Amino acid sequence: MESRALVAGIILGVIIGGLGVLALYQAPLPQLSPQIITTVIRLTQTQTVTLIQEATAPSTQAGKWISEDSGVVSWMDAARYVGQTKTVEGTIVRTFRSGNAIFLDFHDPYQGYFMVVIFKSDWSNFKCQPEVFYKGKEIRVTGLIKTYQGSPEIIATSPTQIEVAYTGSSCQ
Fold it and tell me: Is residue 59 part of a domain?
């Protein structure tokens, strides 16, 4: 509350007395959290006051991911880990449903790049349409990295293998 009173006093001082008085008083800034928004108010063409306000935190305090960060690899590096079980991270930029599989692609065009494949036999495990739900979302997928026709992939049989950033949700 003291910081709001200080800001209000500074603004009032600038309006009444101009920046000359403000420049003489340099109050120490409080320790600020990493979530800061700086707002600049232009009073005239030559006078500027900067207000510092704490931003409201995102709805989840836990962070971006629920899963651990150790051992996570980028979708661009997934081909280096063929034959290993890894957690791969990236954004789904393209999706496609064929008669037998759903493809969650991290690159468009998809050929030669990492993808997640969900076969028709596992669709009933997903309580949503994965090609709609995951499109445009940043995800982590965990599983055995294989190659098919030169492209690295993880076959997802359960929504618990896929985590969405900031929400922790999956298509369960």
Answer: no
Q: Is residue 67 part of a domain?
A: no
pTM: 0.64
Round to whole Å and give the CA distance between 89 and 57: 24
pLDDT tens track for 9-38: 555 454 455 544 434 444 444 444 444 434
Q: Are residues 98 and 153 in the same domain?
A: yes
CA–centroid distance for 109 within its chain: 23
How far is residue 168's CA from residue 51's CA, in Å, rounded to a whole number? 34
Contact 66, 163 (CB under 8 A): yes
Q: Which helix (H) or strand (E) holds 88?
A: strand 85-91
| Cα-based distances in Å from 172 to 134, 138, 142, 155, 164 | 12, 17, 16, 17, 12
Rounded Cα gap, residues 78 and 75, in angstroms: 5
Considering the domain boundaries, does residue 17 fall inside one? Answer: yes
The reply to whether 171 falls in a domain is no
Distance from C-alpha of 112 to C-alpha of 151, rounded to nearest angstrom: 4
Q: Report the distance separating Cα 102 and Cα 133, nearest Å.
A: 12
